[in-house]
Design brief:
Layout: E1 7-12, H1 15-31, E2 42-47, E3 53-55, E4 58-60, H2 62-72, H3 89-96, H4 108-122, H5 127-138, E5 143-146, E6 153-160, E7 164-169, H6 170-176, E8 183-189, H7 200-205, E9 209-212, H8 221-225, H9 230-236, E10 241-244, E11 247-248, E12 251-252, H10 257-263, H11 270-277, E13 288-292, H12 299-304, E14 308-312, H13 319-332
Parallel strand pairs: 1-2, 1-9, 2-5, 9-10, 10-13, 13-14
Antiparallel strand pairs: 3-4, 6-7, 6-8, 11-12
């Protein structure tokens, strides 16, 4: 087993990534050689910004905020997004004016974050700078970097009964249509001109370990990988790259990732996602892949593709279970702690 990693980089979406990070930090705090929480290991999180949206004049970054609130202790435990003890007075008032969109869950407490972000962006700060400033309050215990400071938003190509073939914003598809409108494809508008945010490529190249947590493989991790330069960094880093399956059996543990996988023709299974990411030895992204113990039967097919595989309980039901999952992930990557 290799020495304890001093730099871990995680490519994260919202809920799945954030919950995994809670367990990773708990595991690191208990396992660090000097016993100090986080002192021996720096965790850098590259957050998906493909879900970002302008709504009622404010810039919302749902995945960055989910990571920041979850690790900072401000997340709604019940919803898994937005703030605890939230009210939706502003949202209701906007709806009373008949202003669209009415389907986006803009909470009153949450709105303060978006107002600060919007003001700062409009005074010329980058999203990286704004995110760092917001994290000064929340102290998430990780370095949270947006995948890019440039605007590149995921859109979903659908057949609209009235308008024919149209591309709608991911949030409209996900929240308003609950991913029920069949998706033909996903396109990230603006991605060709997007650059990785400062520190992103370095965080992958200089890491001792890179983790793909159980985030949505298409619109979370998949979106991050589309930023020019990030996929190459992942293919060429000297660090092992290990992933955790967001799928147990034939369904996502939570949410509607199956609708995204269907759209890109990938089977909703731990094996389907592993083969979609592919082995680094064959030009893909993974050295190793952690699957649910109940999916152990698919291990031989995954190893045959050149991906080291192990199984473990994958349900992030509480911080202890999630810390054990993080420990199993690190062990699969060859780290003893
Ligand atoms: P989002 O941006 O809020 O949708 O969150 P992510 O992309 O980070 O994560 C969504 C994925 O997390 C979904 O595909 C879920 O299947 C997965 N997920 C949620 N809870 C769990 C869990 O307890 N265990 C595992 N293995 N995956 C989970
Ligand atoms: Ca998301």
């Amino acid at each position: 087993m290799a020495a304890f990693p001093s730099r871990i980089t995680v490519l994260s979406g919202g809920i799945g990534g954030a919950r995994f990070l809670v367990g990773l930090l708990a595991h690191l705090a208990s396992a660090n050689p000097d016993g100090q929480s986080g002192s021996a290991t720096t965790v850098t999180v590259i957050g998906n910004t493909g879900d970002d949206i302008w709504v009622h004049g404010v810039r919302v970054c749902p995945d960055l905020d989910t990571v920041m609130y979850t690790l900072g202790g401000g997340i709604s435990a019940e919803r898994g997004w937005g703030r605890e003890d939230e009210h939706f007075t502003v949202k209701d008032e906007l709806a009373a004016y008949g202003v669209e969109p009415t389907w986006f869950g803009l909470g009153d407490r949450d709105l303060a974050t978006h107002l600060i972000r919007t003001q700062s962006l409009q005074s010329g700060f980058t999203l990286s700078e704004v995110t760092a400033a917001l994290c000064d309050r929340w102290q998430p215990g990780v370095q949270l970097l947006p995948m890019s400071d440039d605007r590149a938003e995921t859109h979903v190509v659908v057949q609209d009964p009235e308008q024919g073939r149209v591309a709608i914003h991911f949030q409209e598809w996900w929240i308003r249509h609950r991913a029920q409108l069949p998706a033909e494809s996903f396109v990230m508008i603006g991605i060709d001109d997007a650059r990785p945010a400062p520190g992103v490529v370095e965080a992958i190249l200089e890491a001792d370990l890179v983790i793909l947590p159980p985030s949505n493989p298409v619109v979370s991790v998949g979106a991050i990988l589309q930023v020019p330069g990030i996929a190459d960094a992942l293919r060429t880093t000297a660090a092992p790259v290990v992933g955790v399956s967001p799928i147990i059996g034939t369904a996502p543990v939570r949410g509607m990732a199956d609708a995204c996988l269907d759209a890109i023709g990938v089977e909703t299974s731990a094996m389907g996602v592993a083969l979609h990411y592919g082995a680094r030895s064959a030009g893909g992204y993974l050295d190793a892949w952690l699957i649910a113990d109940s999916d152990a039967a698919s291990a031989p097919a995954i190893s045959a593709a050149g991906i080291r595989v192990d199984d473990a309980p994958l349900l992030m039901s509480d911080p202890q279970a999630t810390a054990a999952l993080a420990a199993a992930t690190m062990a699969l990557a060859g780290f003893s702690a």
